[in-house]
Amino acid sequence: MDDSRVSLPPFAALRAFHAAAVHERFRNAAESLGVTESAISHQVRRLEDYLRTSLFDRSGAGVKLTSAGRRYLEQIDPAIRQIQSATEAMLRPDGRGVVRLTLPPSLAATWLIPKLGAFERTYSDVELQLVTTTRVVDLRRDQIDLAIRHGKGTWSGLDATFLLEETALPVCAPGYLTLDEEENPLTALARVRLIVNDRFPDEWEEWARARGLAPPSLSGAVTMDAMEQALQVAESGHGLALGRRPLVDDRLTRGVLVAPFGAADPTGAAYYLCRQAGTPSTVSARRLERWLIELSGVDRADSVSGVP
Fold first, then answer.
1. Bridge-based pairing state of the strands 195-197 and 97-103
2. Closest C-alpha among 75, 77, 70, 39 to residue 54
3. 48-89 pLDDT, tens per residue?
4. Which domains, from first to last, does the chain contain?
5. Burial (0-12, 13-18, 19+ Cβ within 10 Å), 269
6. What is the pTM of this model?
7. H or E stretch including 147?
8. Which of 140, 162, 126, 73 is nearest to 282 (CA)?
């Protein structure tokens, strides 16, 4: 067949299909493009007529991609994103490339943001936009280039690169817990109030198991909703919390918290740098990815306040 005679489908129809497929609802696609839901439906029908195949299954309450629609999305998605990226670059007079990175707020505040000056000096032509949230973001739907996620490193549809190992260690305000020489750790724990992070309710048991100890009693413990709250209570001198590195590193460096039992133990989880599988990265995103991996390598080589 002569390729010069093969026309492209209307771009408005492609754009409507892409938005509907990414957002998984015509209503949300319409809101993202600033048009009506009926306009999205009309353009999708137009594309289906052009391709002579159904792209969505409309038999249920919502819409779902057919197998043909899923294959088509996988093939056109990289091109649509490249057009978006190229257009953003053209519209910016300074020519800076935009990279959107999502990560947990705690990791952003304690690990990444303090180091951003070095990134900006090295890559002045990259504009980094941070999306800090505890929500698991859909990278394709929310137009995110990269994500730093906490877990075991396996997420469907994502390529994950190890960044930082997570370790845990008891922390408290200076002077709150003074260990007697040769004192059994469980005896020391029984003398103080333990602080429990409700997001990880079994963390004290896991820490004790890693040390070959029986689980400490949580009678009289105070429970907080998140690690940041638990660390604030510990910092104010009202208990002993389990701090997780690298999130607690800044407090250990400043000396507002100390680690009376010394070394940290692996939790079994880590932070991973993730990107959409099968989707080519922009030049700016690859620069950020390379910088983050290099940065995590430096951090893994460092220790904090004598904590191995």
1. unpaired
2. 70
3. 999 999 999 987 767 889 999 999 988 888 888 778 777 776
4. 3-91 (1.10.10.10), 97-162+269-297 (3.40.190.10), 166-268 (3.40.190.10)
5. middle
6. 0.70
7. strand 146-151
8. 126
